Amino acid sequence: MKKKLFICLALFYGSLASAQQLPYQNPNLSSENRAKDLVSRLTLKEKVGLMKDISEAVPRLGIKKFNWWSEALHGYANQGPVTVFPEPIGMAASFDDQMVFHVFDAVSDEARAKNNDYKKHGESQRFHDLSVWTPNVNIFRDPRWGRGQETYGEDPYLTSRMGVSVVTGLQGPVGSKYRKLLACAKHYAVHSGPEWSRHQMNVTDVTARDLWETYLPAFKTLVQEADVREVMCAYQRLDDEPCCGNSRLLGQILRQDWGFKYLVVSDCGAITDFYNSHHSSSDAVHASAKAVLSGTDVECVGYAFDKIPEAVSRGLIKEKDINTSVVRLMTQRFELGEMDKDELVPWTKIPLSVVNSEPHQKLALDIARETMTLLQNKNNILPLSKSVPKIAVIGPNANDSQMLSGNYNGTPLRTINILDGIRSKIGPGQLIYDAACDLTDDKITQSLLGDCDIDGKKGFRATYWNNRNFESAPVIVEQLTSAVALTTLGAHQFAQGVNTENFSAKYETVFKATTSGELVFKLEATGSAELFINNKQVFRTGSWRSLPTRFPLQVEAGKEYVIELRYKQLNNWTANLGFNFGKEIPLTYDGLIQKVKDADVVVFVGGISPKLEGEEMPVQLPGFKGGDRTDIELPAVQRNCMEALKKAGKKVIFVNCSGSAIAMVPETQNCDAILQAWYAGESGGQAVADVLFGDYNPSGHLPVTFYRNLQQLPDYSDYAMKGRTYRYINGDPLFPFGFGLTYTSFNIGEAKVTQSTIAKNEPLQFQVPVTNTGKKDGTEVLQIYVRKLNDPDGASKTLRAFKRIPVASGKTDMVKMDLSPKTFEFFDPADAVMRVTSGDYEILYGESSDRKNLQAIRITIK
């Protein structure tokens, strides 16, 4: 009996001891203290495992697998159906930082809802977690940069204000115990192309003024005002040191000067670039030590950090330095509540029903409308009448839903493209549609798919499997008789019963040539695609974006060609596949002119596309290189098409879709109106139509300068700001930063300030009357610029405040704004810092950055 009692007591006290909370398990302690306790219990190998973007689980301590890399640039990406908002460059055109906050509050709700659902199913994979690598606050210094569409434009202040809204919307209220998500300011720093050289580039031409007045302000603002929890270091070197191992950028400026105490994550593969591309480190051992000692805590892809234990054993770095990084990253995981029970974390209650809910769909439409930027409207041709007898909608982007999603995008449940948007405004029989031309190609592919057959049937045999390896019994086999054009966007299937993820497909046919000559195979794929001809692989691609590819083949009359295309959906990417082949013939516009001869007006929807501009893309077409542009004009085939329409006497309205500025001098002559529509998201087509037909009065203003030609720009690889953006441009642009028309007119009156002489630390009150002098209600965007006088090397002006002002027709709004002392902060060359100095300043205010549109008040600071 005594023995049994002893055993029972031992079991009782043993279970009591195991039930006692360890410090890291106590949610009442601070996140940092919990992290320190947890890290003290880890082995070095376990610590290193936590420092990679796919962080390994440590089951003995209750640490789950965690993915640091997720995306939420303008919607939670790589997730299946979500709400897809406009690309950030379009959101910047709204000059509406409050609306942008609401957008990203919705994005973070959808991210939490999706993550909550994944956890119920025990799912953990890349892109599905709560650390989102957004926003991109690099300065869009040159329109040739393919990733400029991800940014908020060329101005440091506008970028800062938009960035603050993004971060606060994503991370949740500052006073909350738990963060909704972790946001990330990227790419730190001095990064904006070229894409083709970013892994080797050494930026050495940045002056102290450019660094502090242009390239760093947005990062500093997000660190000190928005409390951003992550900063991503960039690929290139800055002054000989890779950014992810740059002791000045990461140590002195970010952590010491700005007081950043949270996480630094590397861009993907940036640490292995130290020895593979920059050759600043000899191998992974030295690169990993250099990165961590400089302040990088998490490595994305490549995993040089696997060599950290060897670096410790060789004395290159101490384990206490590793502890510093792991405490930082585990602190943030505690901040998310990811280590606590769900009942303690309010964000775990967000239901899946919020995803693409009606309020979020409305928000996507509202912000898309605000992005629309009217650049030209001769004789007030816009808005159009809905009773117009015939309207022709033509152009390569008119019927392209995928284009509207931009890049780094989520998958929309549904997309309203521009053709559909216009069709919804008019009656049956009023619309003529024709694609008219390709984005860049001045030839037409005369398809020969109809001349192919297999097993006695015309066209292609398409076979689908619900796995990525063409294994087991196929789901379905069907015959295709036209060009392949398939997508999983909008939750579509490639065929009945086929998954939208984790599937493969094979397309087979036989072509017998009747004549000798060149045929061209055209392929676009998001995922893995391999083209075989007569059992020989002639092309292979594997990409997370749909990229146009052209493969020529010489054929001989009478010879048979066995054609096989193999496709695999990869990772969490949206699947897209386009395939055609045939003879190329020169494009002429005679047939188009005849087709639209009865149209009262032609809406040409063109521009470029995320298929052509983006991140490090293997696109080599005239005017494009590696995702960047080598020419900023509209592709010639589109220019020629609009010129032909003009010569035929047509009224032409040009809807330009692009993520960057287009030099469109000929278009200002050949078109009656120009609407810059950006990449406007899932409701972009509705927003365009609402503006064209007057259901919404446009209010967008350019967040970038539209140059006249490439000659107005310095060399693309030159990072000096001289000659760039509205702040340093030489000559007059085509359309200036801040420019945008409406269907009404405004008068900005004479402004008043409380006093003309102030102290360095004294705020200034500014007020000005804004009158709507037109016949429609509308919204003006008041812009306030500041110029420091007697500063010959300074900018001609720089934006320091803005405000959207809705004013009813015939009414006046007295706008009052408080200008903080930071409004007058500029670079002081005396000791290379930013500060307010005594002297004379001009406050310039108006409706764009064009000096002709600005009025001035002189201020003296004592």
What is the fold's blueprint, element by element?
Layout: H1 2-19, H2 31-39, H3 44-50, E1 54-55, E2 66-67, E3 81-82, H4 88-93, H5 97-120, H6 156-171, E4 184-188, E5 202-203, H7 208-215, H8 217-224, E6 230-233, E7 237-238, E8 241-242, H9 247-257, E9 263-266, H10 273-276, H11 284-294, H12 308-313, H13 319-335, H14 358-371, E10 373-377, E11 391-394, E12 411-412, H15 418-423, E13 431-434, E14 443-447, E15 452-454, E16 457-458, E17 460-465, E18 476-480, E19 484-487, E20 504-512, E21 517-533, E22 536-555, E23 560-568, E24 576-586, H16 590-595, E25 601-607, E26 620-621, E27 624-625, E28 628-629, H17 636-647, E29 652-657, H18 665-670, E30 673-676, H19 684-692, H20 725-728, E31 746-748, E32 752-753, E33 757-758, E34 764-772, E35 778-788, E36 798-807, E37 812-819, E38 825-828, E39 833-836, E40 839-846, E41 854-861
Parallel strand pairs: 3-12, 4-6, 5-7, 6-9, 11-13, 11-25, 25-29, 29-30, 33-41
Antiparallel strand pairs: 1-2, 7-8, 10-30, 14-24, 15-16, 15-20, 17-18, 17-20, 19-24, 20-23, 21-22, 21-23, 21-24, 26-27, 27-28, 31-34, 32-34, 34-37, 35-36, 35-40, 38-39, 40-41
